[in-house]
Amino acid sequence: xxxxxxxxxxxxxxxxxxxxxxxxxxxxxxxxxxxxxxxxxxxxxxxxxxxxxxxxxxxxxxxxxxxxxxxxxxxxxxxxxxxxxxxxxxxxxxxxxxxxxxxxxxxxxxxxxxxxxxxxxxxxxxxxxxxxxxxxxxxxxxxxxxxxxxxxxxxxxxxxxxxxxxxxxxxxxxxxxxxxxxxxxxxxxxxxxxxxxxxxxxxxxxxxxxxxxxxxxxxxxxxxxxxxxxxxxxxxxxxxxxxxxxxxxxxxxxxxxxxxxxxxxxxxxxxxxxxxxxxxxxxxxxxxxxxxxxxxxxxxxxxxxxxxxxxxxxxxxxxxxxxxxxxxxxxxxxxxxxxxxxxxxxxxxxxxxxxxxxxxxxxxxxxxxxxxxxxxxxxxxxxxxxxxxxxxxxxxxxxxxxxxxxxxxxxxxxxxxxxxxxxxxxxxxxxxxxxxxxxxxxxxxxxxxxxxxxxx
Length: 456
Ligand code: ARG
Hints:
Blueprint: H1 15-21, H2 24-27, H3 31-47, H4 53-71, H5 84-96, H6 109-145, E1 150-155, E2 158-164, H7 165-190, H8 209-215, H9 225-230, H10 233-259, E3 267-268, H11 287-310, H12 325-347, E4 350-351, H13 353-358, H14 367-376, H15 381-393, H16 403-407, H17 417-420, H18 423-429, H19 438-455
Antiparallel strand pairs: 1-2, 3-4
Helix pairs in contact: 3-4, 3-6, 3-8, 4-5, 6-7, 6-12, 6-19, 7-10, 7-19, 10-11, 10-12, 11-12, 14-15
The structure holds arginine.
């Protein structure tokens, strides 16, 4: 087969070279974007007088019909033709003849590939943002449904202070809200037309990049052709944001795994999201959460592959950059899959509010509240901390103390101290903005609701 770039070569390409350089086995996924870009490019060439009207319509028709073939699974991508761009261009020439050879005027694969990647990411980003929104709605629902459930809040994985479960789970809402904003922000830098940078220096032909941009709905064009073909920041940026998002999913996974253990039994994961053991008949394993936690590793790995590929690359385009595709595609696929799973997993998660509440019995998570009680009676906080520390050191359930016994620690204790040490009391006292009182959590849910509905 005569290569589309074969003019200066007199020897056949070795198959080892063909195998090693081919990318079509993974970049075929860009086919629709490649065709979309080529159609816009063709229309621009016609507008600028570089193609005639009949040439334009022949090329556009040819590209559309190739697109149909691809969508109908009726197109054979050939690794001998290296990549998705060459496969489509070759098919076009076969389909419409000589005029097909005009498509690649004022264009290089160097600006073409980054156009395809940008179009691909713009599409996927919109999907990811929708997935996050839907998952956030599931978090909101489970928070609302269990608004008053009480659990021990932890620091250092030790009981710290009682909190509302709704407050705890809403922490994730805000984590994913930040992810959503980061994705929306990186979308702005992706949404710029690179086409027209050509190989690296622009072109001597009279093209109109602004027109191509308008056809493809890009709000602007890149400023520097050299930067345009060598820039993969937007892929790194996307992968960084995706890694942060996976980290959030992984932390949630870890908590759900922990909460579903026999020791906790705070949550019950729906059976449809669990698997059994081939040897232990009783097992119901939280594999979806474990795999999400595990897959976070590969998404970080992809990010580091990308960083390493780009490090030290001289300007402008280098073939190394072909290696950006598999890590990026894998990150997109993994993230979308995990977000979709979590939406459904959270929606069907059962909360055992009694077990959660029970975890607070016999613990000392009332200690800060007791110190605040003494502070309100005029004792400096450090002294109050010390007094309560002594009571904790006695290692007894607070309800077993008599008032007289407590008075030995401080004269200021009165009978209402027993009420003060109840988790419900402590929680509702924490009425500072963003705190765990029911009033504050309801307020937070209301704010969150607005964000989710504004977007939809
Ligand atoms: N397959 C290539 C890539 O993914 C497309 C650009 C190739 N450019 C070139 N000059 N060989 O980066």
